[in-house]
């Protein structure tokens, strides 16, 4: 029988040293960015009843489920938007306009493992009780500013619209069954099957238009061309809305925008704009968000909502690999005989007040201490003696 004491489950990992230090620094910067825009911190439980993560009676397929001692089915935190909607729905005293921010571990069991993490740290925001193009722009701008605060400059913001696609499919007389097939293909990035589905179920003009729409993207010219193509269709209004959103963001100097209608988010509750943020050389989106105006109805409140989440684990890997944040602090190792412990401790407080990390330890000799300091990245070794103390640079 395998002994699991020294192993961890697939999809999980330990963090140590620089990885965790940079991650904590990123988390602090991200939360400070959120708070500077008026968002208040919220923390929801790591375990929720499984119903919280069910939409229209259907459970999400990637839940980590467990049963408590009362026989009730629970799930590890899977989707912060749903948890916050549960919190808001359970209160009769909260105002109808809320701005929440958070940083929580999220657990998702992917349908195919493929080396994916099952646990990641997600930080994000929820703007509740407001809608309109200005609010949509404000959320995307906050995502933009937050990455800038983390010294990340090379990224694109891909914007789509679930509402546009729904209205467009209605314009093209596409059935609800066919819609589901198309959405499945988009979600799985299976464009071969998408082409087959469209060619067998729609006329050639509609098929070519939709395939081209999913395979291409662009900026202002792309949107303006789409507005012209959709003249006389209801879906044109949604594209005009996206153009207005684009102009708001351009006036805020956000220029790394791509309109991309192949976006289909992890959660299927989105009703308006959706967006993903991609960092150079990172295959998966680091930020994902959008408008989900119907979700809160599931929890008894008819409230508009838009938000996004940042995968801090992916962001952390990118920042470390590109040396974007210097978390280097001076580190001293101090040694002393037992009788000088109090004196050394009091003196070390002076170094700590200067922002220096001080490891007060015991070694059999100065040579042993110097060897340890060199192997573990210390800058200086301080040796306390009855005559005072000597400071030695670590070579």
Strand order of the largest sheet: 1-7-8-14-13-12-9-11-10
Q: How much is the average pLDDT?
A: 92
What class would the helix/strand composition place it in? alpha+beta
SSE order, one letter for each helix or strand: HEEEEEEHEEHEHHHHEHHEEEEHEHEHEE
Into how many domains do the coordinates divide? Answer: 3
Low-pLDDT regions? none
- The overall strand count is 18
Task: Kindly describe this structure.
There is one protein chain. The protein is α+β, with helices and mostly antiparallel strands. The chain folds into 3 domains: 8-154 and 280-328, Bira Bifunctional Protein, Domain 2 (BirA Bifunctional Protein, domain 2, 2-Layer Sandwich); 165-256, no CATH class; 331-393, Rossmann fold. It has helices at residues 18-36, 80-89, 133-149, 162-171, 176-187, 191-201, 204-215, 220-229, 235-251, 312-321, 341-353, 366-375, and strands at residues 40-41, 47-49, 54-55, 58-59, 65-67, 73-76, 98-107, 119-128, 155-161, 217-218, 257-260, 273-279, 287-291, 305-311, 331-335, 357-361, 380-385, 388-393. Helix 3 packs across helix 9 (235-251) and helix 6 packs antiparallel against helix 7 (204-215). The longest helix is centred in the N-terminal third of the chain and has 19 residues, at 18-36.
List keywords for this structure.
single chain; 395 residues; alpha+beta; BirA Bifunctional Protein, domain 2; Rossmann fold; 9-stranded mixed β-sheet; 4-stranded mixed β-sheet; 12 helices
């Amino acid at each position: 029988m395998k002994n699991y004491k020294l192993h961890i489950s697939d999809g999980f990992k330990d963090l140590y040293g620089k990885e965790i230090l940079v991650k904590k620094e990123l988390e602090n910067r991200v939360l400070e960015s959120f708070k500077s825009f008026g968002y208040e911190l919220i923390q929801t439980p790591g375990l929720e009843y499984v119903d919280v993560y069910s939409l229209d009676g259907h459970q999400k397929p990637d839940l980590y489920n467990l049963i408590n001692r009362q026989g009730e089915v629970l799930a590890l935190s899977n989707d912060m938007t749903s948890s916050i909607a549960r919190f808001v729905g359970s209160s009769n005293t909260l105002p109808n306009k809320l701005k929440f921010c958070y940083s929580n571990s999220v657990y998702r069991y992917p349908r195919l493992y493929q080396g994916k993490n099952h646990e990641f740290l997600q930080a994000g925001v929820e703007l509740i009780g407001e809608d309109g193009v200005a609010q949509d722009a404000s959320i995307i701008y906050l995502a933009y500013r937050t990455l800038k605060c983390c010294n990340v400059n090379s990224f694109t913001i891909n914007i789509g619209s679930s509402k546009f696609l729904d209205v467009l499919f209605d314009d093209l007389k596409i059935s609800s069954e066919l819609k589901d097939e198309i959405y499945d293909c988009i979600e799985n990035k299976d464009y071969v099957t998408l082409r087959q589905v469209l060619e067998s179920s729609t006329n050639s003009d509609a098929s070519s238009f939709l395939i081209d729409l999913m395979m291409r993207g662009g900026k202002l010219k792309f949107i303006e061309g789409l507005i012209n193509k959709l003249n006389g269709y209801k879906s044109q209004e949604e594209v005009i809305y996206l153009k207005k959103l684009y102009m708001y963001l351009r006036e805020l100097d956000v220029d790394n925008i791509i309109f991309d209608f192949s976006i289909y988010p992890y959660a299927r509750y989105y009703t308006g704009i959706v967006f993903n943020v991609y960092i150079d050389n990172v295959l998966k989106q680091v930020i994902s968000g959008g408008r989900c105006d119907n979700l809160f109805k599931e929890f008894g409140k008819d409230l508009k909502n838009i938000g996004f989440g940042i995968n801090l684990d992916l962001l952390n890997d990118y920042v470390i690999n590109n040396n974007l944040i210097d978390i280097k602090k001076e580190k001293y190792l101090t040694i002393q005989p037992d009788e000088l412990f109090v004196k050394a401790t009091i003196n070390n407080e002076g170094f700590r007040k200067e922002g220096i990390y001080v490891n007060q330890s015991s070694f059999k000799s100065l040579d042993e201490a110097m060897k340890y300091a060199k192997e573990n990245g210390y800058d200086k070794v301080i040796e306390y003696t009855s005559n005072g103390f000597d400071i030695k640079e670590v070579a």
